[in-house]
Automatic annotation (TrEMBL):
This is Long-chain-acyl-CoA synthetase FadD6. Transmembrane segments: none annotated. Residues 469-545 form the AMP-binding enzyme C-terminal domain. Coiled coil: none annotated. Keywords: ATP-binding, Ligase, Nucleotide-binding. The keyword Translocase does not apply. InterPro entries: AMP-bd_C, AMP-bd_C_sf, AMP-binding_CS, AMP-dep_synth/lig_dom, ANL_N_sf. PROSITE patterns: AMP_BINDING. Belongs to the ATP-dependent AMP-binding enzyme family. Residues 51-387 form the AMP-dependent synthetase/ligase domain. NCBIfam families: PRK08279.1. It comes from the Bacteria. The gene is fadD6.
Length: 593
């Protein structure tokens, strides 16, 4: 858990300074303020109509920059329309799902816009998922069509063929099918209400296999107005660089929303590279970028070079910027504004650093509470009367968000999964609150500071990792009798790294290279645990949860005589723990691959 000394108390002076900084952006903010005050679900306004409006008004303006090449709004809209009309010809209609599987590219973005233009739902598949996990995700989508990037053929081929929809294309086949389709705007776009669902974003939630959280157009428009228009405040001449995968809300909702709020440009990186980051920024003439905390740490770990300052970036937007590196990051790279925010794919509100208060996760005008919680289970704690108790300002507690007609919850595709996250009758009969699963501090004037993540999920590399998913992969290995997985803090790193306490099957020896190879085949790389502790039998009785808490508290330092192995990377696998491993992880020297 982070040290309380790292958190900033927000003062009235901080807000006044933030308001003064907003003055040059007043016209943009005034344009988007109504979208926060009144955003009816039946309004005929969607992501597709916003994009089409910009394309019609400024067709010559740059929209996408990729590897040095530029596509205008008009050119991109023509491609998007051909894609949309092909999907419609395949029978995809309002409320249907299109599975989209690929690395970052203009094509991936065009497919996403095409899907939402016809009222369908873009199912943003994570190309790091393979085999059974990929099958699970495809089943959840129930897509009518699926389009995949040839660069992720290995992932595509791991999906069971019987689960694929009748219309399945790779990029080349889809482009060929679209060649004769009209480039005109689909008529249906202007008829769609904002309540229409737009995206399925996969998240681990708090436990189990990935869940598909729902992003409606209305909620996306709230992101566009609140985070994009009121906080990020791009100019139409700006270019937002996206090094994060487009299957994440950081990229697809926050960053694209900020771009379309201003009619600005987006620059897409195929994938993040710490060594090439600033060179790509310069190549694509970016003036802003999105981040997660790990990305910032990796950039700071790079040796200084001229491009650290010879770029045009003036702001960054993202989440997970550690307070202790905030000033160093801003100073080294000359970033004038850091727009930190807090949110989750399934959460019905977001905090954003609109007032540019350093070292905070931002401000939210919507109703939330920070409440007492059970330190063993992570669940909200109720008093003798069955009610929740709010924590005092500055005290860490569980963040919960009120659910109401004003602030509805999109939830997951699975209603039972959604219901598990809802707290009912918390402060009075009939009220409802969404359990974020996160510990925060309220630091004044509607601002919070992030503290830690609770439950059977931990956050690593900007991703939520479900412990049960990793345990399932470990337990499937013939050498493993039983495993317990939990997140542990690693000095110099954001989030929690995966650690597993493993009991070996009778007669089996630990083979670190073979185990790592199997885990890399079944889990995304970020979910493969960094530490494996070999232990005796782990209690599977009612005390199991308490034992898991003990193991988590012992981490990788208080392990007695238990053998400990660490992940060197895909090639070397797990090796005996050695001095300096934590430093290697912090400096991104391990794990490799």
């Amino acid at each position: 858990m982070a040290n309380s000394a790292a958190f900033k108390k927000v003062r009235l002076f901080d807000l006044a300074k933030g308001v003064a900084d907003m003055v040059p952006s007043a016209p943009l903010m005034l344009r988007h303020a109504p979208g926060l005050i009144h955003r009816p679900a039946d309004a005929r306004r969607t992501i597709g109509s916003v994009f089409a409006h910009h394309a019609g008004k400024h067709p010559e303006r740059p929209f996408v920059r990729f590897e040095g090449a530029t596509t205008t709004y008009g050119q991109a809209n023509a491609i998007v329309n051909r894609y949309a009309n092909q999907l419609a010809a395949d029978g995809v209609g309002v409320g249907d799902v299109v599975g989209i599987l690929g690395k970052n590219s203009p094509t991936l973005l065009y497919l996403t816009l095409a899907t939402v233009k016809i009222g369908a739902i873009a199912g943003m598949l994570n190309y790091n998922q393979h085999g059974a996990i990929a099958d699970h995700s495809v089943k959840l989508l129930g897509a009518k069509a699926l389009v995949y990037d040839p660069e992720v053929t290995e992932t595509f081929e791991s999906i069971s063929p019987e689960l694929l929809p009748p219309h399945t294309y790779d990029y080349a086949a889809f482009d060929a099918a679209c060649a004769t389709r009209p480039a005109t705007n689909p008529a249906v776009t202007e008829t769609l209400p904002a309540s229409t669902n737009a995206f399925y974003i996969f998240t681990s939630g708090t436990t189990g296999l990935p869940k598909a959280s729902v992003m409606s157009h209305n909620r996306w428009l709230a992101n566009m107005s609140g985070i994009g228009g009121m906080a990020v405040r791009l100019r139409s001449s700006d270019t937002m660089y996206i090094p994060l995968p487009l299957y994440h809300n950081n990229a697809l909702s926050v960053s694209l929303g900020a771009v379309l709020a201003a009619g600005a440009s987006v620059a897409i990186a195929k994938q993040f590279s710490a060594s090439r980051f600033w060179d790509d920024i310069v190549l694509n003439r970016a003036t802003a970028f999105c981040y997660i905390g790990e990305l910032c740490r990796y950039l700071l770990a790079q040796p200084p070079k001229p491009t650290d300052r010879s770029h045009g970036v003036r702001l960054a937007v993202g989440n997970g910027m550690r307070p202790e590196i905030w000033d160093e990051f801003s100073s080294r790279f000359g970033i004038k504004r850091i727009v930190e925010f807090y949110g989750a794919s399934e959460l019905n509100l977001a905090f954003v650093n609109a007032f540019t208060v350093s070292k905070t996760a931002g401000f939210c005008p919507l109703p939330f509470k920070v409440v007492d919680y059970d330190q063993e289970t992570g669940e909200p704690k109720r008093d003798a009367a069955g009610r929740l108790r709010a924590k005092r300002k500055g005290e860490p507690g569980l963040l919960i968000a009120e659910i109401s007609d004003r602030v509805p919850l999109d939830g997951y595709t699975d209603p039972s999964a959604t219901e598990k996250k809802i707290i009912r009758d918390g402060f009075k009969n009939g009220d409802a609150w969404f359990n974020s699963g996160d510990l925060v501090r309220e630091v004044g004037w509607g601002h919070i500071a992030f503290v830690d993540r609770l439950g059977d999920t931990f956050r690593w590399k900007g991703e939520n990792v479900a412990t049960t998913e990793v345990e399932g992969a470990l337990d499937a290995d013939p050498s493993v009798e039983q495993s317990v997985v939990y997140g542990v803090a690693v000095s110099g790193c954001d989030g929690k790294a995966g650690m597993a306490a493993v009991t070996l099957a009778d007669g089996r020896q630990f083979d670190g290279q073979a185990l790592a190879e199997r885990l890399y085949e079944t889990l995304p790389p970020y979910a493969v645990p960094l530490f494996v502790r070999i232990v005796g039998a782990v209690e599977a009785t009612s005390t199991f949860k308490n034992r898991k808490v003990d193991l988590r508290d012992e981490a990788f330092t208080e392990i007695g005589n238990d053998p400990l192995y660490v992940l060197r990377g895909r090639a070397e696998g797990f090796v005996a723990a050695y001095d300096g491993y934590v430093a290697d992880v912090a400096a991104a020297r391990a794990p490799r691959g």
